[in-house]
Amino acid sequence: MDPGVDLALRVRCIRSIENLFRELFAARCVDNVLIDTRPLHHSCGMLWDWVVREAVSVDMNPDGNYRTVRDPEIDRAILDTLVRILAMPNVASQRSALHGRPFGS
Length: 105
What we know:
single chain; mainly alpha; 58% helix
């Protein structure tokens, strides 16, 4: 999520997460296992927390306060990828995508 990295490369990276879900998580994570019971299931369930949490930049205001700013292109790539993951038949992947909504608390 480093803004010093080209935006197109960051967007490609986010979109490639679909392949990670299709080729790794959906192929190996079973539907009825809780995410905290196996490391791979935990990574599957929590991946979007890690990605979405880091998808902000911080702008410092002249008064010393700061605000977080989301990049709309990054958010669009995240949402598009989440939609494609939701279409997969693997429940563990679907749960992760539902858990990974970028604008929720």
